[in-house]
Design brief:
The chain has helices spanning about 10-25, 50-75, 80, 85-105, 115-135, 140-150, 155-165, 180-190, 215-235, 240-265, 275-290, 295-315, 320-330, 335-365. The protein has about 375 residues and is mainly alpha-helical. It folds into two domains: about 10-150, no CATH class; about 165-365, no CATH class. It is globular. It comes from Variovorax terrae.
Length: about 375
């Protein structure tokens, strides 16, 4: 069996990093309780539990088991493929065990043998799903589909596109506006340099940041919708396939934004973010993406670089509104604490990682086109 290129392995590494962050957030006030970290394994079962806790522990490790098993199945080794489900489950279980043991040193977390068991179950279900899909030929079908739709070196773009809807789950200050980090970064640096002479070295703004005017908000939404479309265009083979991809990405962006609003403010407010500038920005992004469909791949990459630069520049010239900061309390407290750690860094870093990816792609020579058989 020959090794096949797959995006499952880099996605699984990203997911491991997110699980670690979500499990150990907020990484503060570590203390030793005077007990061995694996004592939770023999602790009595909890008397009270909720369906939400069960579902989130199973679902949280399901994608990890799926991606790890898929990596083994597509890795080219018959031994690894034969033991894909077992290897993926054991790896995920070891990660869960490590996280639970480390949680015994965090005052805001409680190590739980039930969580460990549910996480392992979720990983096994995910790995078994990957194995079943492989046996049914669904994974091979996806591979052939990818060869027809995307160029051979599309793995990085596919990983970023898969992470984009997840990044949108974190409440954004502007719909589809990912990457607003300047104000938080400045505050973090100022706090770290407090009571030191280096604090005076920081550049000080002469005026405070002002909220975005409706026209700037419209432009941010338009670029936020256009950026993932251009990213896909960079690695797609034909304009006809780009049209179908465009519809899927626009629907995903709108749907996930509505889900984020529903999680933050309640289901009755799922569409409250669709103000007039936002609606016009979405339509403008759709129209512009349609006009750019015939553009060559390198031209799309160049425009994507420009769109990212303008988008981040506009977004980081606006302050984090008090209303937006208030909505984050719903995520940073209570049951959304698990989601908070998983998606907030994606929401902040996704456009910057995409920027680096596009720069690297533009710096390389375009490979000769190879049509799939």
């Amino acid at each position: 069996m020959t090794a096949q290129k797959t995006s499952a392995w880099p996605l699984s590494l990203v997911y491991v990093a997110l699980v670690v962050y979500a499990s150990l957030y907020p990484f503060s006030d570590w203390r030793n309780q005077g007990i061995v970290p694996w004592a939770f394994l023999t602790a009595p079962l909890p008397k009270y539990w909720t369906g939400f806790d069960v579902a989130i522990n199973v679902a949280g490790y399901g994608p990890l088991g799926f991606l790890l098993a898929l990596s083994a199945l597509r890795g080219g080794s018959r031994w690894r493929s034969a033991w894909a489900v077992t290897l993926a489950t054991l790896a995920a279980a070891l990660l869960s065990l490590s996280m639970e043991m480390l949680q015994s040193y965090l005052p805001t977390r409680v190590a739980s043998n039930v969580d460990f068991g549910l996480n392992t179950l979720g990983a096994w279900l995910g790995a078994a799903t990957a194995w079943s899909l492989e046996k049914l030929g669904a994974i091979d079908h996806w591979s052939r589909f990818r060869e027809r739709w995307f160029v051979a070196d599309a793995h990085g773009a596919l990983v970023l596109l898969a992470l984009w809807p997840v990044a949108l789950l974190f409440p954004a200050p502007v719909p589809l506006g990912l990457g607003q980090v300047l104000e938080r970064l400045e505050a973090a640096v100022a706090e770290a340099l407090a009571d030191t002479p280096f604090l005076a070295w920081l550049p000080m703004r002469e005026v405070e940041l002002q909220p975005l005017i409706p026209g700037a908000e419209l432009l941010c939404v338009m670029l936020g919708a256009l950026i993932p479309c251009l990213l896909g265009f960079c690695v797609m083979r034909s304009a006809r396939r780009r049209a179908a991809f465009l519809v899927v990405m626009m629907a995903a962006g709108i749907g996930v934004s509505a889900l984020s609003a529903a999680l933050s403010w309640g289901p009755s407010h799922a569409w409250a973010w669709l103000s007039l500038p936002v609606r016009v920005g979405l339509v403008a992004g759709l129209v512009l993406a349609v006009l750019l469909m015939p553009l060559p791949r390198r031209g799309c990459a160049a425009l994507l670089l420009l769109a990212l630069t303008v988008h981040l520049g506009l977004l980081n010239q606006a302050p984090t509104s008090a209303y937006f900061a208030q909505t984050l309390q719903t995520w940073e407290q209570g049951r959304f604490i698990r989601f908070h750690g998983l998606v907030q860094w994606l929401g902040w870093l996704w456009p910057y990682v995409t920027l680096v990816y596009v720069l690297v792609r533009l710096s390389r020579a375009e490979p000769k086109p190879k049509m799939p058989s």
